[in-house]
Amino acid sequence: MKRKVTKAIFPVAGLGTRFLPATKSVPKEIMTLVDRPLIQYAIDEARAAGIKEFIFVTARGKSALEDYFDCAPQLEAELRKKGKTDLLKILKATNMDSGAIAYIRQQKAMGLGHAVWCARRLIGNEPFAVILPDDVIAAERSCLQQMVDAYQETGGNMVAAMEVPADKTNAYGVLDVDQDMGQMVSVKGMVEKPDPDTAPSNLAVIGRYILTPRVMQNINRSKQGAGGEIQLTDAIAQEIENGGGVYGFRFKGQRYDCGSKAGFLQATVAFGLAREDLRGEFSEYLRELMCHAKAAE
Ligand code: G1P
Question: What span, in angstroms and rounded, lies between the C-alpha atoms of 217 and 213?
């Protein structure tokens, strides 16, 4: 048995400029898919995978995130008084155990690798997960859970992976595949945001990682990489050179890029349609909309 992964880092320090003006006062991670903030999906996925300690790397202007995970005694009392037990249950499902959450500030936006490194003292000498809440993954068995299962076999370092269109490699970390075993690939190199003509493949890293503490040490020595930022991808690639195993895991599920407006809208539609209480009315509306659009053509 490999050592259990019980700690996860959630890098949430980004400014979310792509969603201005909303993100002027609302952290991107609090924006809602149907009725739940993005961060709640990430937390639920981590919990399902057995994570017990949740480390948020935040920044100025993100206090709404801390409030979100606090208890809401007034609200709870009000709902109890009114007998709204369903809502009370929904509210309580968001409560976190005391001491299960830690907040660390990334003082300067120096990249994803640097954000992860900010949590080094809380990670210590243990394997850890990283979840990027922008990547929302709808799956029967949560993506991180699938990875934790696979990790029991492989150990080492594991990144979620997905084929992307060949002309989109410059938006992702991209894997140089050594052996392709189907769901799992072993990796001999990783490049952050390569141009399509130099990319080693179109197998891209999606925002779920299980990493060894050695990656943390590598970040410490990392120089600025793509975009002038300290990249997590480079610290993982360094681990390959050090002889540590790195695997890509093709997860089962649908990934939505909620860091982009189009992706966020697609996720909204998909999650809306997946909800029993909304499906009827919402799908009816979408059908009508499509009919009007076709008629107008
Ligand atoms: C980050 C990582 C990149 C990864 C991507 C997945 O990039 O640096 O390797 O492929 O997340 O969403 P970002 O989207 O933050 O630029």
Answer: 7
Q: Which among 227, 150, 229 is positioned nearest to 183, based on CA atoms?
A: 150
Summarised one tens digit per residue, pLDDT across range 44-67 is 999 999 999 999 999 988 888 988
Distance 134 CA to ligand 1 centre (A): 9
| Ligand 1 nearest-atom number relative to CA 205 | 10
Q: Is the pTM of this model over 0.85?
A: yes
Domain spans in the chain, listed from the N-terminal domain onward: 7-259, 260-297
97 torsion bin: left (phi>0), alpha (psi -120 to 50), beta (else):
beta
From 10, 117, 172, give the residue whose CB has the most ligand 1 atoms within 8 Å, as the site to mutate. Answer: 172
- The answer regarding whether domain 7-259 maps to CATH 3.30.2310.20 reads no
Cβ atoms of residues 105 and 58 within 8 Å: yes
Q: Which residue has the tokens 């991808």?
A: 233
